[in-house]
Amino acid sequence: MIKPIVKQSIFIALSGVIALSGCAELTPTQKGTGIGAGVGAASGAIIGKTTGSDKVGRDAAIGAAVGAIGGYVWSSRMEAQKKSMEQATAGTGVSVSQTADNQLKLDVPSDVSFDVGRADIRSNFRPVLDRFADTLKSNPATQVRVVGYTDSTGSDAVNNPLSVNRAESVREYLGTRGVPSNRVAIDGRGERDPVADNTTEAGRAKNRRVEILVGERGN
Q1: Of 134, 151, 155, 213, which residue has the fewest beta carbons closer than 10 angstroms?
Q2: Residue 112 and residue 158 share a domain
Q3: pLDDT tens, 9-23?
Q4: CA 49 remoteness from chain centre
């Protein structure tokens, strides 16, 4: 059972997170660092107590430091990369956004990325990846993760490797444009985590997608 002092530490830390997230005067980087610190402090307090530590305040402080250091930051380079990709993808159907944890996210629908049941990149996806590769080379501190998805048609035995192969195709293509493969992690989620209703054709088309996430670690 969490004692009152620990509850108080967690409450203070999370209250700070909420306050920071709504503060318009802070930059995204400052918000990200502060939110990371707040979550880290809460986690440190919990871990310290559950492991029997008698220095809950110290553990919360350590957690705050780890949270501030370990999270993604939204730097001026990331903002420039976002604007560049917004320009490059205008009118293509690709969605470009900043995630809550300060990553750049590209949502690439199936009518841009891959044909049904295939993992080879469509011709209209290549110019998007060309520009994306340029932004990655301009910001070498970033880390990239490509996640492939399918709709619910077919079995996991088909969908799971297909989703991985789609992500791998993106990594290989970026490699041909000068982005080292060790900068790009891949994952395949198959039909898991749908964003639309798989009982309709329109919904299945939305679920057949690729997500590309780019993050810059704090120092």
Answers
A1: 155
A2: yes
A3: 445 544 554 554 555
A4: 31
Structure token digits, residue 218: 């704090």
Instruction: Identify whether residues 85 and 145 lie together within a single domain.
Output: yes
Clarify whether residues 26 and 83 are in a common domain: no
Q: Which of 52, 70, 88 is the last residue of a domain?
A: 70
Domain span at 186: 76-217
Question: How high is the pLDDT of residue 43?
Answer: 45
The phi, psi pair for 209, rounded to 5°, reads -150, 170
Taking CB atoms within 8 Å and a gap of at least 24, the contacts of 88-96 are 88/127, 88/128, 88/131, 88/132, 89/128, 89/131, 92/124, 92/128, 94/128
Contact present, 131 and 88 (Cβ < 8 Å): yes
Phi, psi of 215 (to 5 degrees): -135, 150
CB 33 within 8 A of CB 71: yes
pLDDT for the residue 94: 92
pLDDT in tens, 98-155: 999 999 999 998 878 888 888 999 888 999 999 999 999 988 989 999 999 998 988 9
Residues 31 and 136 grouped into a single domain: no
Percent of the chain with pLDDT over 90: 47
Whether the full predicted model's pTM is greater than 0.85, yes or no, is no
Rounded distance between C-alpha atoms, residue 140 and residue 37, angstroms: 25
Name, in order, each residue with C-beta under 8 angstroms of 104's C-beta and a sequence gap of 6 or more: 78, 81, 82, 85, 96, 97, 98, 213, 214, 215
Tell me how many domains the chain contains: 2
